[in-house]
Amino acid sequence: MLSYVTTNQGKVREARAYLDGVEAVEFDYTEIQAGELGPVAARGAREAYGHVEGPVIVDDAGLFVDALDGFPGPYSSYVEETVGVDRAGELARSAAEADGDATARASFRCVIAYCDGEDFAATPEPVDRGERRGQDLGADERAAASTDDTVDAGRPRDVPVKLFEGVVPGRIVPPRGEGGFGYDPIFEHDGTTFAELSPAEKTAVSHRGRALEKFAEWFAER
Question: Which of 56, 157, 159, 212 fits a disulfide with 48 by CB distance 3.0 to 4.6 angstroms?
Fold first, then answer.
C-alpha cells in the first residue's frame, strides 16, 4: 500500500486517477518554514515515513504570483487562512497592475515527495538526502542529530526523499466557479478557472496532476 499523507479528499481523488492502491493517512507532520516547496515536502515525507513505516507520499503546493516575486508560494495555506482567497486575489491583481502586468500572471506549483526508506537510482528527478536538515531543525534537534540516528520520536534523519514537480501557468482573475478548493476560483488556465472544471478535467491539467503523473510513471518501475 502507498500512503498519501493528507486529509484532503480532493487530493486523494487526483492521486487515484494515476495510482492504484493509494490510501489516505492522517498524520500531522511538521510543516517547516522555507522559501521553496521541496524542503517542506521532503521534511514532511521523512517524518511521515517514520510514522507510517512504509512507502509514503507528501505534497506541498502553492500559488506563485509573478508580480509578487512568487509570493505566496510555500506560504499559500497561511495566506488563505489569514487573508482569504478573494482578498489574496485582489492584492495579486493590484500588484500586477502596478507592475504593468495586465494579465496578472501566476503559476500553480506542486512537489510530490516520496519516501520508502531505501535509496534511489539516478534519474532526472531530484533526491533530497537531508543536506538541508540544519535549516529545518531547531538548535536542540541539531545537537541531538549529531549523536543520534533519529530525532523527534523516531523520525528518520537522513532517509533519502525523491521529489517530483508539476507546474501549470495561468493568471489571477476575479473568483469564478463552484468546484475545487483553495485558490481554484481565482486561478485561470486556458480561459477557465480551476473551480469551473470537473474533478476529472482539473486532474488532467493541474499542477498536482502533472506531479502525480511523473511520480506514477517512475513508481511503476520502483
Answer: 56
First to last CA, the chain: 13
- Of the residues 60, 66, 101, 136, which is catalytic? 60
- Map out the domains of the chain with their CATH numbers: 2-219 (3.90.950.10)
Residue 190: burial class (beta carbons within 10 Å; 0-12, 13-18, 19+): exposed
| pLDDT score recorded for residue 123 | 84
Q: Which of 60, 55, 44, 51 is nearest to 3 (CA)?
A: 55
Residues with Cβ within 8 Å of 22's Cβ and at least 6 positions away in sequence, in order, are 1, 2, 3, 4, 12, 15, 16, 57
Q: Are 108 and 203 in contact (CB under 8 A)?
A: no
pLDDT, tens digit, for every residue of 99-140?
A: 888 889 999 999 999 999 999 887 889 999 875 443 343 433
Q: Give pTM, 2 decimals.
A: 0.82
